[in-house]
Each structure stands twice: as C-alpha cells, then as structure tokens.
C-alpha cells in the first residue's frame, strides 16, 4: 500500500514537471529577473533615443544597425510610456528618453501581446539595436526588423534578446504642452494638455458620443478636443479594440495625459491615451464659444450693407481701405490681395493669407469688417467664396463680436463667437475650386456686430502652414 502511494506521487511529480515545461514563460505576468539591474558590457555602446534619431537623420532614412566587431553590442535606453492593458495599443511599446522633461521618443514594434505585464508604464528598458532597423512609418519614428523598405515587428522568439528589462520603474511626469507647441520633435512623448474639453457637438445633447463605439468608427474613433480659451482643436484617437471604446466622452473640462503621435495617413497630430484614467475633467464650467447660428437663407436682399470684391486692392499688398481692419496678432503674415491664373486661379483680384514660407512659429491674422447694425437690418445676410492652397490643418474661421470697440489693440481680448452656418473650404476640398459659403442668415443676431475672418497656422511644421483665399464678400438686407 505504501509503495503504491509513492508511485502515485512520483507519477504526479512527473506530470507537473512535464506540464510546466510546456508552458511558455510569456504566459506569466513577470519574469524572475524583475528586480535585476541590467549592466551592459564594458565595451558595449549605450545610446540615448536622441542619438538614435540623430543616426536616422544622418543616414537619410531607413537604416539597420549592423553588429559591432568583437561581439560587442549597441543598446538604446528608454522609459515605457504606453500601456496595452486597456487595448488602446497593440504589439508596440512607446519609449521616451527621460521620466521628466523628455526630449525624444520612439516606438518599438514587437510581435507579442500583451506587453504591459512585461514592460509596465515607467519601466526602464534597454533595446539591443544590433540587427534592428529604424524607419519612419506614417510620420512616426519606429524600430523593428527590416522588410524591404519598411519594418516589421520584432518576432516573439527574439523579444528577450532585443528587449531587456532594467530594475528601475520611474515615475513619469507628463510634459505640459499647448497645441501651438506641437512639432515633430515632440512626437512619442507623454504630454499633458491643460484646460481642454471635448467639442460640444460630441458631448452635449441627448446622446453623447463614445470614445470609439459609434457605427461609423471602423479602426479608430477620432474625437475633437478643444483648448480653453480659444477652442483650438486637437484630435483624440481611440482604437475600436480598446476596452473603453463604448464609454461616453466626459462633458466637463480639465487636463488630459497621452502620447502625441500622427494619424494613420500622417495628416495631423493626434493624442492617444492609455486609459480613461488619464483624463482629469473636474471643471463643470465649459468654455464653449458664443454661436450666431441662424442657418442658411434662401434669398439675399438688394440693400447693400457691405460689399467687397477686392478689385480696387493692390495685388501683393496688405488689404486696406473700405472699412477693413487687417490685423496681425502673431507672426508676419496678414491678409493680402493677389491675382493668379492656372489651376488655382484667383477671381480677378482676391485675398489670401497663409503661413507658408514665413518662418513664423505662430501665425494669427484677422480681417475684420466695419460695424454692421443688425437691429436696424433684421433680415441681413452674409455670403462669400473661399478656396485654398492645401490648407494643411491650418484654420480659417468666420467669427463675430458684439463688444469689440474697433481698436486693433483690443481684438484679442474682445469676445468673438462662431458663425458655423458659413461653409469655408476644407483641406479635403480640391484646391482649384472656389466654394460658396451659402447665404448665411443673420436674422437671429442683434446689436452692432463686426465680422472677422481669422487665420491660424504656423510655418514650423508643414502640416500647419497652408493658404486660404477669400473673395466676393457681401452683407445685404
């Protein structure tokens, strides 16, 4: 009897040993070497992410780190700022070069999921660069293995060879930025936007939008964040595979932490969060702009309150006269008259504004009409035409103010609201076509009003330095 029990225990031991041998270590949360500091060899080279980016620039594009002689290795250090625990990242980790005040970041593609159990937020890692390739994918710098002129993910069997955990887990301090600070060298950094909110059309009303759970969301849900004040827009991008895709967007305002990156088509900057816990919207007082939205009228009157086709303006000079206020708030570019033929022809003499070629880090320009008394003209309408030369995420808005006193020094401090019914050419519109605004109804407005075209852009980034053209402005009753 005793011999039989010993035999059973022996069989059980053999079975457990065999079972454990068949299970891959990646199935468990944490490797045994969790708290062991990694020390490169005396003759190994340790590089900062900035140095890797510098090497990429010097090489002129995609390149592969070749092995060093004598068995030595190159390593890149970085701190993990992404987490796939919420499903918003997939088979990649994003690294930045320092826990606080970072200056460089990069994406590492790995054919392993999940990764947060191995490389948690704040974990310092070493990337063995030998045999890996650095490339730009959709405008974002990434590391993987070469596949022709592109990169693939580091295969799972090579993960332990190329990605080494250090014992350090740092506290990551978000880098506070404003939207105007966005630039290519800020990509792949963990940033904080303060005093922002989601666009009113997405969170107010009977059915607020979710992060990425709408029927129209295919791969990512793109939602509009706005700064307070100013309502400058930035896109929050959320994967439709994220665990929180069906949660409603918060309607308050506050701060949000996330990773600055580019959209799939490299058309504009986006922010990606690790989880909804990165959103701290505790202020219930929204900063929505004043709206003058009476819709579109079917006809316009014959009584001219203000007209300008700009034919009397001097081409390539700033617009002046006829009651216009042409004000440059930031930068060097104002609204100028121009004439041109070809595909993107002007309408005789038209007006254009843009940051392209200016060298301006920020361009904000205004073209403001003389005062219009809406009380004395209850059936007033406004119309114009607009075109663009690849507006490239720069922005042209039609605004109005009831309290601007006519002094250019007070433009920025006056209260300006939106006139959303007017159609203004979009970046997706063909650049050779002039688009009608529609006959914008002003009948729900009151008091003395100035209307303004405001351009916002910059020449520090090619994605924000586009050009707009306007012509045939009519205010009638």
UniProtKB/TrEMBL annotation:
Keyword Iron: no
Residues of the signal peptide: 1-21
Domain of life: Bacteria
Keyword Manganese tagged: no
DUF5689 domain location: 74-279
Keywords on record: Signal
Protein name: DUF5689 domain-containing protein
């Amino acid at each position: 009897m005793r011999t039989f029990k010993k035999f059973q225990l022996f069989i059980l031991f053999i079975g457990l040993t065999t079972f454990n041998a068949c299970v891959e270590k990646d199935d468990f949360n944490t490797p045994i070497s969790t708290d062991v500091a990694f020390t490169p060899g005396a003759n190994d080279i340790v590089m900062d992410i900035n140095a890797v980016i510098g090497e990429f620039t010097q090489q002129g594009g995609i390149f592969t780190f070749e092995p060093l002689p004598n068995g030595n290795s190159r390593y890149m250090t970085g701190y993990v700022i992404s987490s796939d625990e919420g499903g918003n990242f997939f088979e990649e980790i994003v690294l930045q070069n320092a826990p606080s005040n970072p200056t460089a970041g990069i994406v590492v593609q790995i054919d392993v999921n999940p990764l947060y159990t191995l490389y948690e937020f704040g974990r310092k890692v070493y990337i063995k660069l030998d045999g890996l390739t650095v490339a730009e994918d959709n405008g974002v710098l990434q590391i993987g293995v070469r596949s022709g002129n592109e990169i693939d993910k580091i295969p799972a069997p090579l993960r332990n060879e190329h990605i080494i955990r250090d014992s350090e887990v740092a506290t990551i301090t978000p880098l506070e930025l404003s939207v105007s600070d966005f630039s290519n060298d800020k990509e792949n950094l963990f940033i904080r936007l303060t005093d922002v909110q989601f666009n009113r059309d997405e969170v107010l009303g009977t059915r607020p939008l979710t992060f990425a759970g709408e029927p129209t969301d295919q791969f990512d849900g793109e939602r509009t964040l706005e700064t307070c004040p100013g309502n400058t827009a930035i896109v929050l991008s959320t994967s439709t595979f994220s665990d929180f895709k069906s949660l409603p967007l918060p309607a308050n305002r506050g701060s949000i932490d996330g990773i600055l990156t580019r959209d799939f088509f490299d058309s504009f900057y986006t922010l990606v969060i690790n989880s909804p816990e990165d959103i701290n919207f505790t202020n219930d007082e929204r900063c929505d702009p004043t709206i003058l939205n009476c819709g579109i009228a079917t006809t316009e009157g014959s009584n001219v309150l203000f007209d300008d086709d700009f034919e009397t303006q001097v081409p390539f000079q700033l617009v002046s006269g006829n009651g216009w206020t042409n004000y440059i708030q930031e930068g060097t570019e104002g609204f100028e008259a121009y004439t041109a033929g070809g595909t993107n022809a002007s309408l005789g003499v038209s007006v254009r504004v843009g940051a392209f070629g200016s060298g301006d880090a920020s361009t904000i320009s205004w073209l403001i009409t003389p005062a219009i008394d809406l009380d004395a003209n209850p059936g007033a309408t406004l119309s114009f035409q607009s075109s663009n030369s690849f507006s490239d995420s720069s922005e042209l808005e039609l605004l109005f103010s009831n309290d601007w006193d006519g002094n250019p020094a007070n433009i920025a401090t006056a209260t300006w609201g939106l006139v959303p019914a007017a159609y203004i050419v979009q970046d997706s519109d063909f650049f050779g076509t002039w688009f009608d605004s529609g006959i914008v109804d002003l009948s729900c407005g009151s008091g003395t009003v100035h209307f303004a075209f405001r351009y916002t852009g910059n020449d520090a980034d090619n994605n924000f330095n586009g050009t707009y053209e306007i012509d045939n402005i009519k205010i009638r009753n």
